[in-house]
Amino acid sequence: MENSYDSMMAANGFLPYRMGYLTDWMVKKAEEELNETEESRTHALTELRKLIAKEKNLDVWTDDPYLLQFLRARKFDPERAMELIRCLYTILKDNPDIFPKKVDTDKAISIFETNVGGAFPYRHSDGGVIAFINIANWDPDQIPIQLAISAVTAMLLSLVEAPATQVC
Q1: N or C, which end of the chain is more exposed by having fewer CB within 10 Å?
Q2: Letter string b/e over residues 33-66, b meaning 16 or more CB atoms within 10 A of that residue's CB
Q3: Domain limits at 86?
């Protein structure tokens, strides 16, 4: 059941943080600002997959939603999207102390239970997510810097999974 806050936010045109779709105006924005059309999306996904296949030492997911994050960030230029993927995976590989292959999820979740960071439940009127980091709530004696950086990075990567966030 919707509460009065949710009703008020919806009545004022605010979109929820968690949304797995693009509104009509977001589709138009994606076309105008990111060069995203059905044709460009299909072509760029095909080209990006070819570039990924050439990378023998790079284990990258190749599903459409994952690759679209990189393509939207680089206005559907497959070469530039590939460079962004290489950069991300290099950072992850070169910093195993911050980005370990096995993460203690209970510890990572505990960081956000201290209200160190998160996202508001509704988007800004322009469709963007409103995220926050409250450094005053971070206790470095309880949460080492490596874990804090890892958790904040995971939060940010999670935020950009939503198509609306990628466009807005």
Answers
A1: N
A2: ebbbeeebbeebbebbeebbeeeeeeebeeeeee
A3: 4-94
